[in-house]
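The protein record now logged underneath.
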Amino acid sequence: MGMLSEGLTQVLIPAAALVGIAFALLQWYLVSKVKVSGDSSGDYSDKLIEEEEEGTDNLEVSIKCAEIQNAISVGATSFLLTQYKYLIVFMGVFAAIIFVFLGFLGMKIATYANARTTLEARKGVGKAFITAFRSGAVMGFLLAANGLLVLYISIILFKTYYGDDWEGLYESITGYGLGGSSMALFGRVGGGIYTKAADVGADLVGKVERNIPEDDPRNPAVIADNVGDNVGDIAGMGSDLFGSYAEASCAALFVASISSIGINHDYTAMSYPLIISSVGIVVCLITTLLATDLSEIRDVSEIEPSLKRQLVVSTILMTVGIAVVSFFGFAIRIHSLQFRNREGCQELAPFSSVLPLIVAYSLLESRLSGNAKPLYNSLPTPVQDVADSCRTGAATNVIFGFSLAAMYGIAVAALGMLSTIATGLAIDAYGPISDNAGGIAEMAGMSHKDS
């Protein structure tokens, strides 16, 4: 049974990552089938996936859309190339990997899809929604799948050096999370500053000085504004969430390595944090198909409920999926968790059957926190409990309420919140892509009837 579980673990993690990458490329291909007519000759080419361009019903509008898309994409690419030129010096090879697989490709698909979303809007709200959502899914699945796959490969390679020294192995792996945080510092802050400066500048020139609409083609700052949507809200957001994703995974792996799991060299139990992420990719894949292939948007008012449904469905499916995997395949083999204290003794944590409950709780908390926080803040008992937990210092306040599986429970809970990151990021990226599409429609001179 042990060998079977270990074999399943070694297959599930890379398989889920590769399926996530393949699904992202499929969404990319489906978006590329929306034809944009325009001259992309010269030094710049927007064809990340080769296709034969065909004309549309309104060739002039289509050409305008293509030209505007190219201008936005060139500006966004220029920004990232300048930013990553300094990052490569700072981060070396790791920065190059993130540059290719995360922020850069996510930004490129966003600029690749904005004009296509605009043109699809002429066929109906549903067509535009599917194109924009699929484009966002590319970003989400690339981040989750590549983050999982690179971490898994790093562990396998480091293991050839460290051998049975699991504590040393997973302590070294924490550098993966540090690199993700460094990327987030540059990507999120740099992109955020740029997008806010461009947005305010465009508004000041257009709305304040000239009294013209926000995306009026006469305002030269509009392209910079749209570039900011991509480098800040797409590439920057992606690097930020990747940092959180990498940190949570590495933290859970390291905490497990210094427990009885690492001491006993139980590979399947040790891989539980990666298994959570693997199940999350599969769950988000199913959720995305429900949004793009099994439902139809007929009116603008149906978009927001559809996006909220994705969060609810992904949470329910993830809760069920992680429970099934935990109880029937993996975590049932973790009978108990033990940690060393300062005196070298062993502190026994409760049975590992609580781990799926912790993941489920973190998922539900992340979805319901918006409504739950006002309730908890207004009741005297929870507030008093938190105040009492601070009497012995900040540390007891941090771990208050997470005694089920000690520090490992906190690490797994954080990872549980990020387990459906592919769906969450797809929804987040949908916003800037749609915003760009609306700006392109106005700049291209499309009427409300057309769009």
User: Anything to note?
Assistant: Confidence is low (pLDDT under 50) at residues 39-56, 341-352. The radius of gyration is 24 Å.
